[in-house]
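Bumping with the actual sequence this time:
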Amino acid sequence: MQSPATCHKIEARLSYEHSPCLDDGAKFGNFAIDEFSLRFCVSQWVNHRRWVGRRSCGPWLAFLIARVMRTSVALLIACVRPPPIPRCPHARSEADGDLLKSLASRINSLKGDSVRLLVAEALVPGQTLQFIAPQPAVEMYYRRVPLAMVGRYRKLHSHGVGIAVETVTPLPSGEAEVTLRAGRLCEVTEFGLPQDVSSPWLGRDARVRYLSPDDDEAMYGSRGETRDSSPPVSSRLLARSDALEATFVEWVDKVRRTRRDKEAGLLDSIIARLGPLPDANRPTDRCLWVAGVINDRRVRGLANDVRPTVLMARSADARLDAVEMALADSLARLEVGWI
């Protein structure tokens, strides 16, 4: 492609003289040009015009191509895009925020409270446990952190009791003598890993949900909120609960007559600490109370340990079955003098 300067050089090739090489040469006034020079000059002029036109029309051509491409892409997207989905009348709105918050609080309540879980013995409400706490755990018992306790047989029990610290007596060695008292029934909803396995009295993080003793639906059914009042008890269950009292009185009399006075005196102190026997219309409380008496640590061996069964049983009938079988077995062995 030639610049304007090249065209001026070409025009210089025009001569004022007639060219002898051109027989039929064309004359333009005083100018004369041969055929080759004319063709060369015309071609260079055409190329020059093309170069000028391309330089001036290039930006406009690029702008036009970009507009066409953008329009084509927009049309393509409009054809491919799915149609808008109509809004559901039940879709989430700002008013649903309170509902979601209440649902989240409900889920957290079902998970339960954060506690320090001790894995030691299956206690029932009212029982006490005394032990020597190692030095790293003494501060935890001084601070009265929320505690719970479950038993263990091959695996951790799913149900236990809340624990209250009664006394903490420091020892010269840096350890402390701690007395714990079992409280409300609870279900462990989340087990944590033990931070230190050197002693079971250091516990582990867990979450528990406290239960109402005689509300089987809340304990093992729909896992809803527990009720303050006990549900109605059927006449059959009430009759079994009444019969349990008579069996327990017979067992206490048999122990007094066949065992040493020391153990008979221990029974009196155990019963006095647990309080009076619950009413017959509270069969679960009555089963827990009887299990607490016959399976106390101070009179170990008088009856089979049914506390884990009573804690994790799914109905009052199952709890009554466990306690009745333990009393019947103990009475039979006391009769023949095996214990």
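The tokens above came from a reply further down the thread. The chain has three domains: 4-64, 109-210, 235-336.
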